[in-house]
Structure formats: structure tokens, C-alpha cells
Design goal:
Length: 381
């Protein structure tokens, strides 16, 4: 029996759709969509919007994300994207000429481009950890960190192959050489627990539209207390001390909020989208990330066993929620479109097919996926 029973009724996923692409974009909970409709309608009646509303919903959602990851609301900024969060982190990390910045091969471009820009600005050197033969990213990453390392950028789960990285081990190594650690946990937060206190990253960023079951264009940036005096990307007004008093805004106080709120994006008080993010995170807290991981782990294990009969294998050391398989004869060219035509939705990344379920999936979905893949493989040979 799965730990959390199928939650399809909480979503709007029709019976005829087998959606296995949470790693690309999750569907919304019905409650989150309703919260978004309510939020959007606030703008239809702006006379009901008071100054306090520019703060209360942001604070509620900020606190929910903080609770989910084990931080405090003071440590969380509201950002539009991972690239924004990464740019903020890169603006504030200390790198000397000749030092190295370490990333993983095929990591998500929002991280890689940010690292490349920092390397160019500081005359540093980019070290890209090659994909290890046996898939043990943790050891390969540890081996690339040395006394010359200024910064390590890593995910908790590699977005292509689904491999988990032991972030506690990586963090210990970073601390031992004085390197900063910046994490992109977009492919894990909400579906995989992380002991934030044990890892103690300098910055952690997550987009909300995947495993946080939230809207597109909202993300969260955790900033360790030791960096909360840093410079934001923008010269916003709502990030200033005393911004709550709208009558005094033109007195221009340069002082920024004394915590991670100073890194908030402009217009972060998004009446339509923040309630969506909040409703989704509240549900995730209710389920518990460990329970979600265990339940999705059972679902992907069942799938993996069936796909293995066709010679399709996932990566050793993969995250419970993240199955990414290789085909023995290479990916059939048309497989993504072919499955989509049968209303089975997956995505291709690199030489792999990502199968990333959530609690709306059930056994009928899994059977359908296996059947369609079997047919595609049979036609390939
Ligand atoms: C690991 C990871 N990070 C970040 C993103 C999204 O980045 P951004 O918010 O900059 O568009 C994705 C989207 O696929 C992702 O897989």
C-alpha cells in the first residue's frame, strides 16, 4: 500500500491523461487554481486592495516556503526564476582571480550561464565535473573540490538523469576548503527532504512550477543569515526599511531590509500567483516531503521493474521521485510525440526519457505508460 493514497481528486487531470512529467511542469492542485482565480480577481476590484495587502500574502507564502525547507521567513526572498536567484547569489559570492567554480556536466543552463558570467567577471576558472561512468556524481564532485575552489554550484537531484547528490558530504568538503555552496533544488524541494541545517548552503534557489506544484514565474531564494547584508539585483522600493508606510516612500531611505527580504524581486506582491504558490506549499507541508518521496519511490520502483523487462534502466542512486531511463537501442526518435499522441506524457533530456510522476498518478496510468513504451520498443527493432 502506498503511504499516501492517490490524490488525483485534488487535481484536474482527466482519466484519459497519464501525466508523468512533473520534472517539466506540474499540474496545479484544484485548491491552488481556485486561490489563483481569487487572487487575480483582486485586481478586478483594486479599491479593495489596501497597503497591508502588499505585504501580508508575501509574508504568508514566504513563511510557508521557509517552513517547508526548515528555515525562517527572514531567510527567504521571493524571486521570479532560478536564473534570478542564481544571479543574486553570484553577485554576492567572493571569488578571487584564478580560483575555481565547480559545476556538474549537463547541469541546468540557469546555473551554468550564471557561473560562466562570474568566471568571466572575476577571471576565475570553471571546472565542469564530467558525468561519471558509474553515475556516482557525489564522489566525482568531491574529487573536484580543492583549496583553489571558491564556489560549488550543485543540485540535489540532477535534472537529466535523476541522480541524487549527497549534499551533506559536499557541504562538509566545501566548508573544509572555505568554498561557498549554491544549490538549485528545483528538481527536489517538495518531493525529497533535505536537512538544511546540516547542509547549511550559502544560497538555495528553487522554481515553484515543478515539485512545489506552484505557478510559473515564482521561485524562492534561501539566503544564509551570514549573507543577509548583501546587495540585491535591483534597487527596489518595497525592499527598503519602512516601505510599509506608503506616504513616506518619497523620503527615500537607502537602508535595505536587514534580512533576505532585501533580495525580493520588484513587484513581488503578486496578487494572482502568490496565493497559488501558497496553497500548493501548504498541501506539500501537510503531506510531508518524506512521505511524498516514499510514495513516489514505490511508484517509480514499480515502473522501473516493468521497464527493466524491456532492457530500459534507470540510473543507480536515483532520487525516489525521478526515473530517467536509457533505451538499449537509443531513444526512438518519435517516442515523445508518439506517447503524447496516446496521452502519455514524459520528456526527453539528453539520451534519456524522464518519467516523473506525482500523487495524481495511479496504477492505470503506469500500465498505460508501460504498454505504450513496449509498443514503441517493439517497433524500433
Ligand atoms: C534544475 C532546474 N533548474 C531550474 C529550472 C528553471 O530555471 P529558470 O527558473 O531559470 O527558468 C529548471 C527547469 O527545467 C530545472 O530543471
Amino acid at each position: 500500500m502506498p503511504l499516501i493514497p492517490c490524490q488525483r481528486a485534488l487535481f484536474d487531470v482527466p482519466r484519459g491523461v497519464a501525466y508523468f512529467d512533473c520534472a517539466k511542469m506540474s499540474p496545479l492542485l484544484q485548491a491552488a487554481a481556485a486561490a489563483g482565480r481569487g487572487g487575480l480577481m483582486r485586481k478586478a476590484h483594486p479599491w479593495e486592495i489596501k497597503a497591508a495587502h502588499f505585504f501580508d500574502e508575501s509574508e504568508r507564502v514566504r513563511a510557508l516556503f521557509a517552513q517547508l525547507i526548515g528555515a525562517t521567513a527572514d531567510d527567504v526572498a521571493i524571486v521570479p526564476s532560478v536564473s534570478y536567484g542564481m544571479a543574486t547569489a553570484m553577485r554576492n559570492v567572493r571569488v578571487a582571480a584564478g580560483q575555481t567554480i565547480v559545476t556538474l556536466a549537463e547541469d541546468f543552463p540557469s546555473t551554468v550561464y550564471a557561473c560562466r558570467a562570474l568566471v568571466a567577471r572575476e577571471e576565475a576558472r570553471l571546472v565542469t565535473v564530467a558525468r561519471p561512468e558509474e553515475g556516482d556524481w557525489t564522489q566525482a564532485l568531491l574529487d573536484s573540490i580543492d583549496g583553489g575552489t571558491a564556489l560549488v554550484c550543485a543540485p540535489h537531484v540532477h535534472w537529466v538523469c535523476g541522480t541524487m547528490i549527497d549534499l551533506e558530504a559536499v557541504a562538509r568538503r566545501c566548508r573544509s576548503v572555505g568554498a561557498a555552496l549554491v544549490l538549485d533544488t528545483t528538481q527536489s524541494t517538495g518531493a525529497l527532504p533535505l536537512d538544511l541545517a546540516a547542509v547549511d548552503p550559502d544560497y538555495l534557489v528553487a522554481a515553484s512550477y515543478k515539485w512545489l506544484l506552484g505557478p510559473y514565474s515564482v521561485g524562492f531564494l534561501y539566503v544564509a543569515p551570514r549573507h543577509q547584508q548583501g546587495r540585491p539585483l535591483e534597487e527596489g522600493w518595497i525592499t527598503r526599511a519602512g516601505a510599509e508606510d506608503f506616504r513616506r516612500l518619497a523620503r527615500y531611505d537607502d537602508a535595505l531590509q536587514p534580512n533576505a527580504r532585501r533580495f525580493d524581486m520588484g513587484e513581488r506582491s503578486n496578487f494572482a500567483l502568490l496565493p497559488v504558490a501558497g496553497a500548493a506549499i501548504a498541501q506539500l507541508i501537510d503531506w510531508g516531503a518524506a512521505n511524498v518521496a516514499e510514495t513516489l519511490g514505490q511508484a517509480t520502483a514499480a515502473l522501473e521493474a516493468k521497464l527493466a523487462e524491456m532492457g530500459l534502466h534507470g540510473q543507480p542512486g536515483r532520487a525516489p521521485h525521478y526515473l530517467s531511463v536509457r533505451f538499449p537501442g537509443g531513444l526512438p526518435d518519435d517516442i515523445e510525440d508518439r506517447l503524447a499522441a496516446a496521452q502519455v506524457h514524459v520528456s526527453l533530456r539528453g539520451d534519456r526519457m524522464r518519467i516523473t510522476p506525482h500523487l495524481y498518478n495511479d496504477e492505470a496510468d503506469r500500465d498505460r505508460l508501460v504498454r505504450e513504451v513496449r509498443e514503441a520498443v517493439a517497433q524500433q527493432v
